[in-house]
Each structure stands twice: as structure tokens, then as C-alpha cells.
């Protein structure tokens, strides 16, 4: 929390989340190191460390040079800056992983046995473990964009405008968590409902925007797309997948209640400004 507030204050929100993640990772490594040696962990986790480092370097370069604005792809309704996309860091690290895989330096297991056959088997394992989470993420994002671009949310905004300020808070929390749960992303969830909430004819739209942002982020924690990614990485079986999905659903429900409660208390104590 201190890192998020400090970095956001001095440099802006671009690298605040990454900086907080690095601090948490460092604290975890220090704690684990104090309890004993970390046997083999850094070698098996180097792609994740490389991804964090790549994201940090790219964010710092973009913050210092603003070069991302020079490469802009503009459509009818949206604009996209490829150099500011998270896919850039993922692509760089993926290239490093493939290069290390070809050289037999990815893990100790890759250096054993026939190189060509083992590499082909490892590639098949990648496809087997990645297709389900990638397909889940794709179709959930496709569904959210269909709701957004198809005009299906116009009725939601009309209905929300009829609610009182008191009843609007829990409804906004539920919609926020639902948007994060469906998209698996805080940004994607905000893209669905943020505009509808901030244009309501009520005096506390700033609080509603905060509720939407918090609810979408907490809803994304238990989303099916994120859980599919976790189960794919962990090689989970069907029983473990079902248990994790139930846990994620109840986690989102509890977080929704907490967001609605805290939003109501904040508005009650600090007013409807």
C-alpha cells in the first residue's frame, strides 16, 4: 500500500502496480530466505522474474520518453498504442523462453534425453496447458465487447437512473464485481460500466466511480479467465479446478459485500460530494 501511494504520487500510476508487485516479491523472497535456502526456485521461475523486469523497464522508458504516443493505431471508436500494450513485454519474454528452450537452458529437464523429441514434447505440453485459459479469456472478452458495442447496456443506465442514491450503492457494487468477473480485468470491467455510472444524474458519481473501480478489480480476482490461467499453469485436475472455481465465486461474493459496505460507510461519513 505504501509503495502504491508513494510511486503513484511521485511518478504516476503507470508503474505503481509493477513497483508494488516487485516489493511484495522481494519481501517474500527475503522471508523465504530467512527460513532456509530456496532450493531451485529462482531457476524454475526465471520467466516470471524476466517478465516483471521487462515490464518495469518498458514502463520506465515510456514514462521518461513518451515514445508510445508516436506509434498510434486509431479506429472508429478506440485508439491503441502498441508500445504501451502489455503484450509487448509478454512477446519479449516469450521470445526469451523460446530461445532458452532451443538452447536447452530453460530447465534441467530440457537438457536430458533426445533434444529434438523432448523439445517437441515440451511444445505439445505448452499447447495442451495453454489452449483452455486462452480460449476462456478470448470468449469472455468477446462477450463483454458484444455487450458494450451492441448497446445492451443502454437499458442498464436507464434503470440505474431511477434508483435512489442509497439503493444505487449496492447495485453499483454488484455490477462492478460482475464486470470484473466476466472480463477478468479491472480495465475491462471499467470499460463496461464506468461510463454508465459516471453519467447518472446523482451527486455522488465520484464515489460510484471508486466503487466500480474497486469492485471490478476484486471481481477479476475470482474470474473464470484468471482461474483458467492458474489451473493451466499448475496442471490442476478436474477436482481441483472445480474447487478453485467455487472458491473464486465465493471470494467475489464476499468482496462484493465488502465493497458495498465500505462504499455506503464512506458516502455516509464523507457526504455525497
UniProtKB/TrEMBL annotation:
Give the transmembrane region(s): 45-65, 77-100, 134-156, 168-195, 215-235, 247-270
Question: Per its record, how is this protein called by name?
Answer: L-lactate permease
| Source organism per UniProt | Vreelandella nigrificans
- Which taxonomic lineage is given here? Bacteria, Pseudomonadati, Pseudomonadota, Gammaproteobacteria, Oceanospirillales
Keyword line: Membrane, Transmembrane, Transmembrane helix
Keyword Transmembrane helix listed: yes
Record's keyword annotation contains Cell wall biogenesis/degradation:
no
Amino acid at each position: 500500500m505504501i509503495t502504491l501511494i508513494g510511486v503513484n504520487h511521485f511518478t504516476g500510476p503507470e508503474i505503481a502496480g509493477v513497483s508494488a508487485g516487485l516489493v511484495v516479491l522481494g519481501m517474500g523472497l527475503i522471508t523465504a530466505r530467512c527460513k532456509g535456502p530456496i532450493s531451485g526456485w529462482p531457476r524454475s521461475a526465471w520467466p516470471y522474474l524476466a517478465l516483471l523486469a521487462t515490464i518495469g523497464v518498458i514502463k520506465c522508458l515510456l514514462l521518461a520518453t513518451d515514445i508510445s504516443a508516436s506509434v498510434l493505431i486509431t479506429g472508429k471508436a478506440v485508439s491503441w498504442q502498441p508500445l504501451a500494450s502489455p503484450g509487448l513485454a509478454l512477446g519479449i519474454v516469450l521470445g526469451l523462453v523460446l530461445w532458452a528452450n532451443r538452447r536447452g537452458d530453460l530447465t534441467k529437464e530440457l537438457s536430458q534425453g533426445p533434444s529434438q523429441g523432448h523439445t517437441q514434447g515440451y511444445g505439445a505440453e505448452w499447447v495442451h496447458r495453454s489452449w483452455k485459459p486462452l480460449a476462456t479469456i478470448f470468449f469472455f472478452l468477446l462477450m463483454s465487447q458484444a455487450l458494450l458495442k451492441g448497446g445492451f447496456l443502454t437499458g442498464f443506465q436507464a434503470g440505474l437512473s431511477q434508483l435512489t442514491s442509497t439503493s444505487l450503492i449496492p447495485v453499483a457494487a454488484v455490477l462492478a464485481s460482475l464486470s470484473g468477473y466476466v472480463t477478468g480485468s479491472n480495465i475491462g470491467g471499467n470499460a463496461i460500466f464506468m461510463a454508465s455510472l459516471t453519467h447518472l444524474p446523482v451527486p455522488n458519481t465520484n464515489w460510484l466511480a471508486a466503487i466500480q473501480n474497486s469492485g471490478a478489480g476484486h471481481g477479476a480476482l475470482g474470474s473464470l479467465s484468471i482461474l483458467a490461467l492458474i489451473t493451466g499453469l499448475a496442471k490442476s485436475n478436474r477436482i481441483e479446478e472445480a474447487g478453485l472455481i467455487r472458491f473464486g465465486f465465493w471470494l467475489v461474493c464476499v468482496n462484493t459485500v465488502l465493497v458495498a459496505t465500505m462504499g455506503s460507510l464512506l458516502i455516509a461519513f464523507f457526504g455525497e460530494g
